[in-house]
């Protein structure tokens, strides 16, 4: 069911305001892309949006993401109302930050992705989980988990300003502002420059 012209215009206008990193014609293109993805997917959410699988396929094909844990977390960061479905508004607003977000927005977004249990902290265990997934397995004698534990220790040393053994948003933000490369310290969750 194609959107009526008027409905599309209203959507473009309101998203043009809320997804402020896109101009109106870009918003319109993203809405069309969204409708195409929904139409192709014929999933049970087709009336409102698309599900995790369609979203993951898109992350994979468009942005080269491969890490399951992180793709799952990116899905949750986009899915603001937690209904397991990405609506057109969540899609365009999510991409606005994902593709063009300010440093501030990207810091918030990455923190949200890395805070696996949503408790407002990135714990040692969460870092371990993500690094274990995103690092290439090296065929070596030692226990690979040891190397990851070392990395977690290094990350904490560098980023845990209040020394409580976990990263609060303030820790994370300060670390990234001091050293931008730390933005994706625990795995790629933003598109690469292409």
From TrEMBL:
**What is the protein's given name?**
EFCB1 protein
Q: Which GO terms describe its molecular function?
A: calcium ion binding
Origin species, per record, is Stercorarius parasiticus
InterPro entries according to UniProt: EF-hand-dom_pair, EF_Hand_1_Ca_BS, EF_hand_dom, Recoverin
What are the entry keywords?
Answer: Calcium, Metal-binding, Repeat
- EF-hand domain sequence ranges: 66-101, 102-137, 147-182
What gene does this protein come from?
Answer: Efcab1
**According to its UniProt record, what is one Pfam family this protein matches?**
EF-hand_7
| Database matches in PROSITE patterns | EF_HAND_1, EF_HAND_2
Q: Please indicate which superkingdom the organism of origin belongs to.
A: Eukaryota
Which PANTHER family does the entry link to? CALAXIN, CALCIUM BINDING PROTEINS
User: What lineage, starting at the top, does this entry show?
Assistant: Eukaryota, Metazoa, Chordata, Craniata, Vertebrata
